[in-house]
Write a structure and sequence with these properties.
Blueprint lengths: L2 E4 L5 E6 L12 H4 L5 E5 L16 H15 L4 E7 L1 H10 L5 E7 L9 H8 L3 H15 L4 H12 L2 H13 L1 H10 L4 E6 L5 H9 L4 E4 L5 H4 L1 H21 L2
Parallel strand pairs: 2-3, 2-4, 4-5, 5-6, 6-7
Antiparallel strand pairs: 1-3
Helix pairs in contact: 2-3, 4-7, 5-6
Length: 250
């Protein structure tokens, strides 16, 4: 599995998980923005970025097992904060509930209601996925004329395995009914970060109704690219709060 890493002797590690069609490129700014004594790890899921697809089908559960093995084999001695964007947030929901010692979880517009699943639903319902996927990439290319986030996403889409993209989209849609419940079950410190230009009104209402710890940014779906310094400062503060909480536990 391809990964970008800044190893450190620190007891604190941050694991960054990208979204549907994405790659670790979306986390590029994490390395210069966050404290140099934290262990940082951004991965390309199988079939995305520069990681071969192997035997994976793109399903949510298969990626949960994949990262569970990574954590158990490599990060068990760390105070682990999981940071997941979009589909990566969905994966993070389940990782945080699997008894892996996750100390904190940051969902960056992970899917909480069916109203978050526009791209996945379009991919699954397309009469010809291959045609839709090419048209989708062209649309992202055109949007990239005005947005650094979409330019970077276009690069990642061209590295993604189309079959795995479709498999992931199907998995997201089929899991839609359980994602919110899984997030609400998480007992470690958690926060939901979202962009005012992106998140559906129905999901905003859900977050408010359930009293979910949250913060909004003047950004689109890729908060960490649209608002680099603000996003990583908030992540830094959250991580320090997690560290302080763990130090205060008996």
């Amino acid at each position: 599995m391809h990964l970008v890493e800044r190893p450190a002797k620190s007891e604190v590690a941050l694991l960054f998980i990208h979204g549907l069609g994405e790659s670790c490129l979306c986390w590029t700014e994490a390395f210069p923005q966050l404290q140099s004594d934290w262990h940082l790890l951004a991965i390309d899921l199988p079939g995305y970025g520069r990681t071969p697809r192997g035997d994976y089908d793109g399903g949510l559960n298969s990626y949960v097992y994949c990262l569970e093995a990574l954590i158990e084999g490599y990060l068990t001695s760390k105070r682990l904060v999981v940071v997941g964007h979009s589909f990566g947030g969905d994966i993070g929901n389940f990782l945080s509930n699997r008894g892996l010692g996750v100390s904190g979880f940051v969902s960056v517009e992970g899917d909480l209601t069916p109203y978050d699943l526009f791209i996945s639903q379009c991919a699954v319902s397309a009469s010809s996925f291959s045609t839709w996927f090419e048209e989708f990439k062209e649309e992202i290319y055109q949007m990239g004329r005005e947005s650094p986030a979409f330019r970077r996403y276009f690069v990642s889409l061209n590295l993604a395995d189309p079959d795995l993209f479709l498999g992931s989209a199907r998995s997201i849609v089929s899991s839609a009914g359980s994602l919110a419940a899984e997030f609400l079950k998480i007992r470690c410190p958690k926060i939901f970060l979202w962009g005012r230009k992106s998140l559906a009104d129905e999901t905003r209402d859900f977050v408010a109704r359930h009293g979910i710890p949250t913060e909004a940014f003047d950004a689109g779906h890729w908060i960490m690219i649209d608002r680099i310094e603000e996003f990583y400062e908030r992540l830094r503060i959250f991580t320090l709060e997690v560290i302080q909480r763990n130090h205060s536990l008996p």
